Give the backbone structure.
Amino acid sequence: MTIRCKHKTLLVDVEAHVAGVRSEVVLLELIRHDGQIVDFSSPHVQIITIYEDGLDMPKAWTNCRIQRRTVDGRQYHALAAPKASVKVNRRKVARILLNKPGILKISNVSDPVNIMIHDLCVNGIGFECPVKIEEQDIRHLYIQFMDEDRDEEEEIKVEARGVWKKELPGGGFFYGCRLVNAEENLGYYIAGKMRET
């Protein structure tokens, strides 16, 4: 899960790993920054927790509190969320609708899969896939496609991490992914496509 800390205009995201749940409190492995354990006790810092269960869009808890707690002799960050979670769209930047065929390569799977890329932005991609991607592979997806509509055919390659998936009524799955790596031409390509619309 992602812990988002906000104080006035300062915004910091840190990744956290769930260790377990005790009495409606989520226990997290101690969160560190530059080798130091992070102190979340300030009442002036707003804490939002974004978590991904792989089944739907990411969800968020707001007004969270995080304190240090010792359980069975081990120290954890204990997360308490007073309100129910809500679905959130983490893509806050403009996206382009593509509806173009692409090729998906999954780590540890030899054969590529033909997909239909629905939309794309500088930090995310949405696509339809005829097969279910196993949970252990959803963190290592490599996607490429060609845009034949442009004067010069341009190959776009990105590396993505699955964030949510939805089973489609007619068969197959829709995946929403966060981009973790992309070739330099991605930004130029998206800017060019946005100018065309």
